[in-house]
Amino acid sequence: xxxxxxxxxxxxxxxxxxxxxxxxxxxxxxxxxxxxxxxxxxxxxxxxxxxxxxxxxxxxxxxxxxxxxxxxxxxxxxxxxxxxxxxxxxxxxxxxxxxxxxxxxxxxxxxxxxxxxxxxxxxxxxxxxxxxxxxxxxxxxxxxxxxxxxxxxxxxxxxxxxxxxxxxxxxxxxxxxxxxxxxxxxxxxxxxxxxxxxxxxxxxxxxxxxxxxxxxxxxxxxxxxxxxxxxxxxxxxxxxxxxxxxxxxxxxxxxxxxxxxxxxxxxxxxxxxxxxxxxxxxxxxxxxxxxxxxxxxxxxxxxxxxxxxxxxxxxxxxxxxxxxxxxxxxxxxxxxxxxxxxxxxxxxxxxxxx
Length: 354
Hints:
By secondary structure, the chain is an alpha/beta fold.
C-alpha cells in the first residue's frame, strides 16, 4: 500500500464525531471562519452563529457572534482558525460539545474526488503537495506545510514564455504586486494587463503602481487597465464586504450570503468583458469566488486555453471542485499543485496545455 492509499483509507474511515444534523456554530469569526461558512452553506448545512470572544455581540456575514462560553447546548462546533496549533488547542477545550475542524468535517465525504484529483495531477511534486496538505489537517501538524513550501508564488512553474502577445488577467489585483512581477518577468514586453480590484483604496494603489511601471518601462499608456470591479459568473452588482481587521484591505470580498445593503461593486464575467479578445494568463486570488470567476470565463478558457494560476484554499471544496471544472472545459490541461505558505493559506492550482 502506498502512502497515499494509506492516508486515503484513514480519511475514508474517519467519522465526524456525533454529527447528527445539529445546528452548527463556527468557532472564529475571521478569514478561516468566513471560508468555513461559505463551504458549509454551499454544502447545505445549517450554520446559526459564530463563536469569538473578540467580536462578541457583533454580526459576521449576517450571523450573530457569541462568546464561546455561550455556545448553545446541542450545537455542533466546527473550528476554523488560521493555524494548526490554535485549532488543536481549541478542540481540546470543547469537550462538552461535538466538534471537529472544517477539514475533518468535509474531507471524509469527498475522498473519492480527492483520490481522483491525486491521480489527475501532472507530477509527483503536485501529488506530494496534496498528500501533505491533507495530512496536515488529519494529524493537526503544520510541519507538513513547511515540508512542501515553495516560494515564487504564481511564477514557480515557468509558464511564461517570452512573447510580446501576452495578455494577463489579474483577478484580485490587491495593490498591483503581481502585476509588477508580471511586468518585470516579461521585461516589459507584453500586449496588455487587465487587473480587477473591487476595493477602492487598493484599486487606487494599483493604479499608482501601474502609472509608475508605465513610466519606468516606457510602456504604452493603454497597456495596463485597472478596473474597480470584481469577476464572477454573471454581470451584476454585489455588496463589498470589508474586512475590518486589516487596514490595508486584504481579504475584502463579495459573496451572496448577506442582505444587499450599503455600497455595491460591479462584477463582470470575463467572457463578456473580454468579448473576443485573447487571454494568455489568468491569475485569481479572490477570496472564495474563484470558481464563480472561472464559470464566467468558460468561453475564454475553452477558446484560448490560457495558463492559469488559481488559489484553491479559501473554500475547502475548491481544492477538488476547481480542478474538476477546469478539466471539464479543457481536458488537455495539465494540472499542478503548489503550496506557498507555512500554514493553511496559499495553495495554488496551476494549469497549462504546454
